[in-house]
Design a protein that fits this description.
The chain is α/β, with parallel strands linked by helices. 48% of the residues lie in helices and 17% in strands. A 7-stranded mixed sheet has the order 3-2-1-4-5-7-6, sandwiched between helices. The longest helix has 28 residues.
Length: 225
């Protein structure tokens, strides 16, 4: 019975996602993104395998597909202030982008588990990227009201994660790009959509470029500027 119910709710989510064709402004932009995405899959495959065997698990870590999308959106939008809300391999992806593509951009990593942050710092250090601006959630909440250009929200489990969506929106500018992972989970998706719609954000479907072998995928949101 649970399997049938899960399939029904997943089908409902798929049917109610925005049209994937609206993700890009032009066919040329889509083609460029697809090339960057394919390159990023190859670029991060080995390090993702290491991360999910030595640091985390493949069911808990951001998927290879999500990492490739995150990196590719950085190339597309060229954000200057980036936030990884929920540290892990996604922090490495953003800091590799910083190191290789835009040394002047600023990356923040935040987590509500200080012991996990220590693992993140160790992993980043082993991969020769910077370890600046890494904060426990309690410390981050007391920082000045920074306006981030790109936010990847993957903090904790979705039951806790949903509690921080509004505060992230409040820390955004009219050009901020949000990427919300794990929207395959019906309750999280429904509650997330309520918040995004109430804040009049445009929602875009990332399933094509984020769905993994477990059925996890992401959406992108931005303001109607």
């Amino acid at each position: 019975m649970f399997g049938i119910k899960n399939k029904i709710t997943t089908y409902w989510i798929y049917k109610n996602l925005p049209d994937q064709r609206a993700l890009f402004d032009s066919g040329q932009e889509r083609t460029a993104f697809k090339k960057n995405y394919d390159d990023a899959i190859g670029k991060f495959k080995s390090i993702h395998n290491i991360y999910t065997s030595e640091v985390s698990s493949d069911t808990m870590a951001a998927s290879l597909e999500a990492c490739a999308s995150l990196y590719s959106f950085c190339i597309l939008y060229q954000p200057k202030y980036l936030l990884d809300m929920g540290s892990g391999i996604s922090s490495l992806v953003l800091r590799i982008y910083q190191k290789e593509k835009d040394p002047d951009c600023v990356v923040y990593s935040v987590d509500d588990d200080e012991k996990w942050l220590e693992k993140t710092v160790d992993f980043l250090d082993k991969n020769n990227v910077n370890t600046e601006n890494i904060f426990a959630l309690s410390h981050y909440q007391n920082l000045p009201n920074l306006k981030f250009d790109l936010i990847f929200h993957d903090l904790n489990f979705v039951e806790e994660r949903i509690k921080h969506v509004q505060s992230l929106i409040d820390r955004s500018s009219r050009n901020t790009i949000f990427i919300f992972d794990d929207v395959h989970k019906p309750r999280y998706y429904t509650n997330l959509m309520k918040i995004l719609v109430a804040n009049k954000l445009i929602i875009k479907n990332l399933k094509e470029f984020s769905k993994d072998k477990f059925g996890r995928f992401a959406i992108l949101a931005k303001r109607n500027s």
